[in-house]
From TrEMBL:
Organism of origin: Microbacterium immunditiarum
EC number: 3.2.2.31
Lineage, broadest ranks: Bacteria, Bacillati, Actinomycetota, Actinomycetes, Micrococcales
Top-level class of the enzyme under EC nomenclature: hydrolase
One Gene Ontology molecular-function label: adenine/guanine mispair binding
Protein family membership: Belongs to the Nth/MutY family.
Protein name: Adenine DNA glycosylase
Coiled-coil stretches noted in the UniProt entry, renumbered to this chain: none
Cofactor entry: [4Fe-4S] cluster
Catalysed reactions listed for this entry: Hydrolyzes free adenine bases from 7,8-dihydro-8-oxoguanine:adenine mismatched double-stranded DNA, leaving an apurinic site
InterPro entries assigned to the protein according to its UniProt record, in alphabetical order: DNA_glycosylase, Endonuclease3_FeS-loop_motif, Endouclease-III_FeS-bd_BS, HhH-GPD_domain, HhH_base_excis_C, HhH_motif, MIG/MutY
Domain HhH-GPD: 38-189
Length: 289
DNA sequence: AAAGCGTGGTT
DNA sequence: TAACCAAGCTT
């Protein structure tokens, strides 16, 4: 299977900034690290412009570390999950203080950085430094569960995913990096969650799920909670006003004065402060200095 | 270990 | 239109 997927990838990979040879100098350890933070749960097409702007402003971890977390949260804009901006800033501090300003290539050192888990650590080690590790994201998990297990949707991430991918990995470093990227790409563009394009799939002939008639095998994934009216929506609205504020501090009574549920607004402010995404003092609220 | 965490595009 | 979906991580 790896051979067919890699051959398909060579012909069909999307033209993305970090894949362009002329941008290779921008996508070393730091460029890949920033891109992977942004890509955690945010679609590629929304990430690209923000990624280029971020790297233009902060071309190194040390340059980001020299600015305030508030600057990172503002620059993050509407990418969503703003604590990623906070965590990325924290990781930059850790890289400056523990690694001399150089993004580490060792998976365990990467895992020890704030905001980096099993996926991101291996993605940096493999795509930035060419090491040989299994890189498993939701796309790869979906391809594997369909092709091998014959089911329609993957289970939540687990240690087994890494083992399954490891057993498929080609022997060479460069080949294994290509295969990791190819599996993600196949899941992202062909073996999609909702309407897979099996006619365009390079491994349709050996796919257990397709050969079984694409049964709906049930979905063990968690359902996403309703957003409209949620605390998350309230947090998002509070943070949006803090980001937009021209003066850096906002009187607390001026934050969402007309929010339908004042208790929910207060809860949102408190939780943002608890998360370090906002600071309250003297009746004012602001992004973290 | 299950739940919480943004935002916007697609179906 | 409401639900689904998107290169996950932390507690």
């Amino acid at each position: 299977m790896p051979g067919a997927v890699m051959a398909w990838y060579r012909e069909n990979a999307r033209d993305l900034p970090w894949r362009r040879p002329e941008f290779a100098d921008r996508y070393g350890g730091w460029g890949v690290l920033v891109s992977e933070f942004m890509l955690q749960q945010t679609p590629v097409t929304r990430v690209i412009p923000h990624l280029e702007a971020w790297l233009a402003r902060w071309p190194t971890p040390t340059s980001l570390a020299a600015d305030a977390p508030a600057d990172a949260v503002r620059q993050w804009a509407n990418l969503g999950y703003p604590r990623r901006a906070l965590w990325l800033h924290r990781a930059a501090l850790e890289i400056r203080d523990r690694h001399g300003g150089v993004v580490p290539r060792d998976v365990d050192a990467l895992l020890a950085l704030t905001g980096i888990g099993d996926y991101t650590a291996r993605a940096v080690a493999v795509f930035a430094y060419g090491e040989r590790h299994p890189v498993v994201d939701t796309n790869t998990r979906r391809v594997i569960v369909r092709a091998i297990d014959g089911r329609s949707q993957p289970d939540p991430p687990s240690r087994r995913d890494l083992d399954a991918m490891e057993s498929l990995l080609p022997a060479g470093d460069a080949e294994s990096a290509l295969f990791n990227a190819a599996m993600m790409e196949l899941g992202a563009t062909v073996c999609t969650a909702r309407s897979p394009l099996c006619d365009a799939c390079p491994i349709a002939h050996i796919c257990a799920w397709r050969l079984a008639g694409r049964p709906d095998t049930g979905d063990t994934r968690r359902k996403q909670a309703r957003y409209e009216g949620s605390d998350r929506q309230a947090r998002g609205a509070v943070l949006k006003t803090l980001r937009a504020a021209t003066s850096r501090s906002v009187p607390i009574e001026a934050v969402l004065p007309d929010w339908p549920d004042p208790l929910q607004r207060d809860r949102a402010i408190d939780s943002l402060v608890a998360d370090g995404l906002a600071e309250a003092s003297g009746g004012f609220l602001r992004l973290p200095a």
